[in-house]
Amino acid sequence: xxxxxxxxxxxxxxxxxxxxxxxxxxxxxxxxxxxxxxxxxxxxxxxxxxxxxxxxxxxxxxxxxxxxxxxxxxxxxxxxxxxxxxxxxxxxxxxxxxxxxxxxxxxxxxxxxxxxxxxxxxxxxxxxxxxxxxxxxxxxxxxxxxxxxxxxxxxxxxxxxxxxxxxxxxxxxxxxxxxxxxxxxxxxxxxxxxxxxxxxxxxxxxxxxxxxxxxxxxxxxxxxxxxxxxxxxxxxxxxxxxxxxxxxxxxxxxxxxxxxxxxxxxxxxxxxxxxxxxxxxxxxxxxxxxxxxxxxxxxxxxxxxxxxxxxxxxxxxxxxxxxxxxxxxxxxxxxxxxxxxxxxxxxxxxxxxxxxxxxxxxxxxxxxxxxxxxxxxxxxxxxxxxxxxxxxxxxxxxxxxxxxxxxxxxxxxxxxxxxxxxxxxxxxxxxxxxxxxxxxxxxxxxxxxxxxxxxxxxxxxxxxxxxxxxxxxxxxxxxxxxxxxxxxxxxxxxxxxxxxxxxxxxxxxxxxxxxxxxxxxxxxxxxxxxxxxxxxxxxxxxxxxxxxxxxxxxxxxxxxxxxxxxxxxxxxxxxxxxxxxxxxxxxxxxxxxxxxxxxxxxxxxxxxxxxxxxxxxxxxxxxxxxxxxxxxxxxxxxxxxxxxxxxxxxxxxxxxxxxxxxxxxxxxxxxxxxxxxxxxxxxxxxxxxxxxxxxxxxxxxxxxxxxxxxxxxxxxxxxxxxxxxxxxxxxxxxxxxxxxxxxxxxxxxxxxxxxxxxxxxxxxxxxxxxxxxxxxxxxxxxxxxxxxxxx
Amino acid sequence: xxxxxxxxxxxxxxxxxxxxxxxxxxxxxxxxxxxxxxxxxxxxxxxxxxxxxxxxxxxxxxxxxxxxxxxxxxxxxxxxxxxxxxxxxxxxxxxxxxxxxxxxxxxxxxxxxxxxxxxxxxxxxxxxxxxxxxxxxxxxxxxxxxxxxxxxxxxxxxxxxxxxxx
Lengths: 791, 166
Known about the structure:
The structure holds two protein chains of two kinds. By secondary structure, chain A is an alpha+beta fold. Chain A is globular and about 90 Å long. Chain B has two domains: 2-76, Ubiquitin-like (UB roll); 85-162, [2Fe-2S]-binding domain (DNA polymerase, domain 1). Chain B is built from five helices and five strands; from the N terminus they run ββαβββαααα.
């Protein structure tokens, strides 16, 4: 990889001048003539039979065009999913509702105000049933969400995966024997990793426009995966995927919730087809809490068996994972991602059983980190408990169990091969920067004065950069959609006739700055200025076949495809430039926005001259085709394995239980860095979401399945006053599974942070007798834990 | 109902339904889609505009309540001389990612700096507490406002390059 100032340098974002002037075009900003608006009638019950639906009142209202129920759309099938395990979501409730907020009927009207008025006039006769919300009750199966089908969908276990329920020796070989050793120390703790509502600030929105003449449909949607949506719509409506154009324009935050296929995307296409008008739906915030996916939702027991010198002889996690009522795009695969990184940075025997159960709640699926924050939370919390039990420094316990740099590549206890890692260097860099020993002394001095200061540490390994065709293609076949792309990356680089450059990619941003980062890759390769490079994305017609943005995958996979395409364009440009300059291609050098003959800077051509020749084939050397572009599909041999270490200093108010984060440090390793400003921004936001889980956010359901936190008044996203400044640094351990040596950074901050805060808070109050507090650590909960310990 | 509202210096006389929210009037009647809707309840602040000098959440105000008022939206933040220092700060300091909260965040920051051109970090965090951002963790938003504050006071502002370590 080059080290020019463009590559690896801070470059202001190309997308910002539009966004800071209010000129970004999000789905709800795009208008089509004659469009109609949709509102949904949603269930107030978590479990009920739908006896009848009376839409006559709604249909009598002026401006109402249609009210649809399942009878109108049953022929289209259920909502497609890329991992089709469990009961998939019907497009509209089919005789029964399984969670509060499930859509029962769809109203189409002249505008959103009338549509909402009409939705309130649809009378639905429900017969309420008992709901199951508690995860242990769901496991017990006494109330079944889908009658006749066990609530337990499958159990991910051991080092085998994807086969469904896999019976392995339990506990894993060696762990049981270790427990019987005389010097064994066993610590075990049940902990909750609570449900979260992802909450992108842009609500989801859909605009569908069916064209009967062409037999085609256009759909604008707030999606991280427009190509998958296009394939699924084609399959659902029985039209070829090349008759479906799906556009994800500016997307106002994704975080996994827009990595999905939603009924409304199909229903708006249906309504547009039926009514011959464009049809729009925009989610309200309260609706978003029940109509989009949620994340996390595990209760599990983590156990470490080890010795007093800090050696871990076995790690076990047995957890129940909440899938919600219906499976959507990746639902049951999310815990599997956690399993992939179950042993973290450590060479430790690991036994894992993740029970995926359904409940009468909205679907869970990918939320930033998706399984990996949960895995890191359980492991790094119980390591802290173990360290406290044996009276050893938590940093030293971690070091005693690390994979060593010289051991890589390593095969972990769950069968994953990690190509690179240097964990001890990373942690040492963090501890040195923090001044760990001084910090501990400061904490102890404060404690002596009665102040409750605590230090929390966590490390993590992330698996991302999906991904290897053989790994992701095994289970995640899109064959049903006619899209057998197993998470490849794609990039097209075209030099235009005027010497500027257009890059189109199979992935698109929801804030990650693709337009800038990709332009840096191409500018570095070709020497074309950043201002002359435009990056296009998000249109299934115009972008190369692509997979989308999720799992911190874009730069490692689509970035690498673009890097390779850039190389090929440059090779061809050297041939053309050589011809124009009467020199051999190998003697052509690129610099200063053009090319020259090595050693003769005055014998030069500009990119415009090279491109002009490229598009006039008669000027080209014999055998050289016209045009100057390359399209590359890249499939890496392995996923990537970023890692890092996070540390926080917190103070707990003994009188109120309020937690104040005094300092937050992180040292991450995402391999090579293309734009450090953007990478730091990703880490900032990731940490904020981890802190949000640790201290503030929780989707709370009552025993009947009512969501009590469906507005931002009840579901407190952290505001500026709730968060500190973050102190960041990096180590750089490149991967060799892609030509850029990059690993991905979108989720790292979230994976490392929640347990860092919990470890710090518990450290602050452990001398009072507190062993653990379940998230979110709101003041009342912390205060109560202190009171309970004192009494 | 007939309303007369000045938006970014231009007078608009319109006939609106009494229940039309100011944000929907701006977006759908005037086509000013820079002002966003995030929660319809006044918590997220994506719809923040400045009405008669005060930052207001336009999803909690009816268009008829703005009759006779002067409204400034993000589209009116820049002038012929170029970007407003707050906009420039957000660009220089990577104060935005997805950009959805950004127009509201910028308008709140402008209102804050018009009241206090040299706020402390705590005052900035307090001043924008009614605007939620899910992407940035606010770190770079705070720095963006600090950048704008320095620039407005004629000092040399610090961009992103001043901070990032590798």
